[in-house]
Amino acid sequence: MWIWSARRGSPAARLSSVEIRDLKKRISLVIEAVLEGSQDRNRAALAIQGFNALKSVLELERKVKEQEEILERIEALEQTAETAKGGSRWGV
């Protein structure tokens, strides 16, 4: 039986955590470069805006995966219920 995807260790959660770690590392590198003076502030600002766009896409992707997994669970439950009731989907 499935456990809801928001649970740690699910494929969706693992994928997101890897991408989030990568994004955090990249943002940290930009910040460090600006503080050291080796990165132009304007270019850094544009990079941070790009990272914000990536963050939004990651969040949308996570929500879509979560919905797909929930739909799969619902379909599996409906199929189990149908089988238990002798083949009638809604028990009618």
Fold and architecture overview:
With 92 residues, this protein is an all-alpha fold. The protein has a domain of 56 residues. It has two helices and no strands. The protein is rod-shaped. The N terminus is likely disordered.
Distance between the termini: 26 Å
Order of helices and strands: HH
Percent helix, as a range, is over 70%
- Secondary-structure-based class equals mainly alpha
Number of DSSP E strands: 0
Q: Percent of residues in beta strands? A: under 5%
Mean pLDDT across every amino acid position:
83
Low-confidence stretches: 1-6
Q: What's the alpha carbon Rg, rounded to whole Å?
A: 21 Å
State the shape.
rod-shaped
Main sheet summary: none
Can you count the helices? Answer: 2
Short structural description:
This protein has about 90 residues and is mainly alpha-helical.
Which features does this protein show?
2 helices, 92 residues, 0% strand, mainly alpha
Layout of strands and helices, then pairs:
Layout: H1 11-36, H2 41-84
Helix pairs in contact: 1-2
